[in-house]
Amino acid sequence: MKYRPYLLLAELTYRCPLHCPYCSNPARYPDGRELTTAEWQRVFREAAALGVLHAGLSGGEPLQRADLPELVGAAREAGLYTNLITSAAGLNEARLGQLKAAGLDNIQISFQSDQESPANRIAGAAMHRVKLAAARMAHAAGFPLTVNVVLHRDNIDRLEEIIALAEELEAERLELANVQFYGWAFRNRAGLLPTRGQIAAAVPVAARAKQRLLGRMRILFVTPDYYSDRPKPCMDGWGRRFLTVNPVGEVLPCPTAKEIKELRFDNVRDHALDWIWHESAAFRRFRGTEWMPLPCRECEFREVDFGGCRCQAALLAGDAGVTDPACALSPHRERLTEFVQAAQSLEAPDFAYRQNP
Amino acid sequence: MNALTDQSRAVLARGVRLRADPLSGEPLLLFPEGILPLDATTHDILLRCTGDLTLAGLLLALSEEYEVEPDELRTDVVQCLTHLRQEMLVVW
Ligand SMILES: C[S@@+](CC[C@H](N)C(=O)[O-])C[C@H]1O[C@@H](n2cnc3c(N)ncnc32)[C@H](O)[C@@H]1O
Ligand code: SF4
Ligand code: SF4
What we know:
By secondary structure, chain A is an alpha/beta fold.
């Protein structure tokens, strides 16, 4: 089978003025210089030639790149759909005008809560008002808006109010992303994991709002895998549809793949993207079903969830090549269940706030 | 969500693009959270979601193309547009 990437996540920089303790960025940043404007232009062209149709421009905070409008223009010129994934830090009227002129298709702004003071506490920066103003400006400039909120123990009880905020901002889409435990979030997971009771209360709130807002705002709510019997179909399969290029040019099957210490990821500075996608060892390592151990190898779901997440296997079981410990059939599930159990009654410890490279 | 009537004019929602896959030529929709390959009927409907046609006009245009009565298409077209609206891919 010939694999084709459809979606590119372009992590333009790891610099960011916020300090979210739930940040999925790597807790140890890779060495190296950020890709230049010209290098990104080449990446977008090579990605489009491989079959990519859609680019998420993310980070870190993508607006930290002074050349962001040029990069959007380059992605559009290569024929890619462009979605800016931002904290809104640095999004002003002038910037919006430049991004509009460059052809940006959508803006996604993340919020930490619906209320200013907890939102700023979680972000580790006084950003809530800036975000509200930016979302309104983006709307006025004619952009469609996605609101993203990472849900965790400290904000999930505000779900009703968070949904109301997205409604008030007239967002077309609301992503309620249950915190996933990679990077900084993995470090902080004991303080971030919602309790079973919190999740049980949140699920019907999200479902009711989804129904009520049908046709006005699309709500995406992903149930957290720590509370599920089945793992998430991570990236729809390793090296199957997704491609991430990190700020220094390493190409990853998913944004958190650096959690897997045994793999070396090739760089767009050394190789053509086509070669990295098709031939590089990292992309071939977990592609398809060949690599699978038991119980995945004989499981009816192996082409549905692809054995779950490789990074989670590495983080929780110490081996990226085993069944995702979130799966009830994993021999490592018990340890995860014990962690979840212990976290129910935990006093939330102090957060380790995300630091800059 | 406002009701879909014969007078409604369905258009692609902001931030949604209809295009052919440059590699395969297949029609698809691009939108903030991803990509949707289109079957022939949905494609025919979306090609006419330019704002020029009301639902009645859209049914008439499709009925000429498919050589059937407009009302034979109504259920399917309404269902298709309603589904696309729920995903925020078209509005009216
Ligand atoms: C890493 S951020 C970079 C873009 C920008 N700085 C922002 O926060 O919006 C990319 C997206 O992932 C979300 N995110 C960050 N950490 C996450 C986690 N641990 N689990 C799920 N989503 C997360 C953010 O809310 C944002 O929508
Ligand atoms: S710290 Fe927050 S705002 Fe910055 S990259 Fe991470 S999630 Fe985005
Ligand atoms: S055993 Fe493997 S393939 Fe089966 S459900 Fe669990 S993770 Fe998925």
